[in-house]
Amino acid sequence: MSDESSKLSYALLILSDRLCAAVNNIPKTERAFINELRLRLGRGFSCTVSSKEYYITASGRLTYNYCDALTVTDADIKETIDKAFEGSFYSFHKELTQGYITAPGGNRVGFCGTAVLTPDRAARVENVKHISSVNIRIAREVIGCGEEVYMKTLQSGTGGLIIGGPPSSGKTTVLRDLCRLCGDRERVSVIDERGELSNSRNGIAMNDIGKKSDVFLSYGRYDAIMTAVRVMSPQIIIIDEIGAEDDLTALRYALCSGVKIIAATHCNDIDDLKKRPVVSKLIKQGAFGHAVILSSGVTPGRINGIYSL
Q1: What is the DSSP string of the chain?
Q2: Where are the domains of the chain?
Q3: pTM of the full predicted structure?
Q4: 241-269 pLDDT, tens per residue?
């Protein structure tokens, strides 16, 4: 089974039988490009293909016509969430409060509904009930999609790299391949908070992340980075979706320890990237030799621009 089909197959395993049947009825050539599967209670079952959202009919036809869509029921959502959490919400309290869980195969299952808040002043999310929407993001491993980025920015061995782009531009997909490319050459600590980079199961990475890579799975990013520098002596740290102040503190510690950083963050263009508070401070500190901006499209990792910092 190819990676393209296996990742989608993992996603189908958590769908209800009737939704799974509808996806399986989609022609194989179209299924290969599905990025997300979306369930909205009482509304049309849909998918995104190259940033465009289509409704899915019971016969597997993709359409813009809402009236033809297969309607998502409460049973569909409950079955999907139950399978994603492997039948035990209590075992994944952190994921429940954060609004997503990484399911088998590395696919991220995001959800929303009615938040149950803690009674203290912080009013943090303690639980989520009446889940009304689910988004399954297909975590495809695309071997080779990061090679151009690697050759043009990292092959010389000088400076780190920041990858930016809008949602569905392939940032995480490119990072996966950079784990492989860098991890075959240098010691890499993969900060894999959600399990999307390594797709680890029982301590074994299911994705090819390189022969010299060490995975910090489900750690908070601050703790993972600090621990990695102290105990694994990495030459490179690879981390997805930076942006919190804790990220800045830990990454500065890594920089001062001589560790190269490869990271990704959401942005629209290079100007938007430089306005991100944490990223701009790291740029000023010399953390990144280059910035790569990706654009949305059919092919993951399509480069919109490469900038020397």
Answers
A1: --HHHHHHHHHHTTS-HHHHHHHHTS-HHHHTTEEEEEEETTSB-EEEETTEEEEE-TT--EES-GGGSPBPPHHHHHHHHHHHTTT-SGGGHHHHHHTEEE-TTS-EEEEEEEEEE-SSTT--EEEEEEEEEEEEE-----TTTTHHHHHHHTTT--SEEEEEESTTSSHHHHHHHHHHHHHTTS-EEEEETTSTTT-EETTEESS---TTEEEEES--HHHHHHHHHHHT--SEEEESS--SHHHHHHHHHHHHTT-EEEEEEE-SSHHHHHHSHHHHHHHHTT-EEEEEEE--SSSTT-EEEEEE-
A2: 3-137, 147-308
A3: 0.77
A4: 998 888 999 999 999 999 999 999 999 99
